[in-house]
Write a structure and sequence with these properties.
Blueprint (H helix, E strand, L loop, with lengths): L1 H12 L5 H18 L5 H18 L3 H23 L14 H25 L5 H19 L5 H18 L3 H26 L1
Amino acid sequence: MDSLVVAFSRELAHLETSPLELLGFVATLLNVWLMARNKVVGWPVGLVAVAAYSVVNFDVKLYADMLLQGFFFVTGVAGWYDWKFGGEQRTELPISRLSRRGWALTAVAVVATSVLLGGPFHLFTNAANPFLDSALAGASVVGQLLLVRRVLDNWLIWIVADMLYVPLFISRGLLLTALLYAFLVVLATKGYLDWKKEMAL
């Protein structure tokens, strides 16, 4: 583990990144920080981030994650509306919790996405890490849908997904993005704790 950290630090010191990856990095970090603070303005910032990362992921052959960015764009628009008007009588949407049935459906969705997307990507494309990429795409879809509906447990899904995205992005040479996802683990943890505290008020 120590040797991995040293190697990562050495590579980061000589980091070369594209302007789009840098834009995606900054916009994503700002987006998740705002969402963790339960601020609706995080949604339009997120739209900028996903537009940038859709191109970045295509360039490095992470096709499932590229498709995921398009989904994020559509749900970003929906989330922006729902947070402002999705409550009773078009009021602000309150924070809620995921049911046991919801957790079971989440597990099924992630496994199904890994197989249904990962299999064709593995057989018919030059995709990198197709099954892991697809499983994380599935987890990200569920996490995003729960975030749109302001469900507290979205943060738990993001914590696990973001932790697994770090080595995936390192393996594709996206060191800045890997660093971003390490930060996102911290922000998702803060989001979970802050939202939970807000629910208790």
